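Incident log, entry 3
Record: Nucleoside deaminase (147 residues)
Problem: checksum mismatch between cached and fresh output.
Input:
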Amino acid sequence: MISTADEILLRRAIGLAARAVTLGDAPYGSLLAGPDGTVLAEAHNTVRRDNDITAHPELKLARWAARELDPRTAAGTTLYTSCQPCGMCGGAIVRSGLGRVVYALSTEQLVEINPESGAWPTPPQAGPALFDEARVPIEDHGRRRAT
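Fresh output:
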């Protein structure tokens, strides 16, 4: 359910996307708000400017939250973003513990508007393999964390 307050902050994220375009960046913007609607941080896409494929605003804000917020505070936040987060950003959002995501355009809508946005081929993957060898550092890490 999206409230009137959500719509206000979502419009601000869309404004960040529009501002990104004027700066020569890709048209994506996001902000992170606390439970009371206070904006904690905001970002826009700087993939081209930074020559960094990970410079998505959602990922930047998830990383910021993981560094700057305790888990309880992060769980009370909402990420407002102009487009639905991609898989990379979605993983970071989960791991950073953000509480909620509100987006304007779905991935499907984005691809309808800009077909090249969905032109990412999936490389072939092979595995799992070498289980007995690969489990050793994982188990060692678990034992070290337990002590």
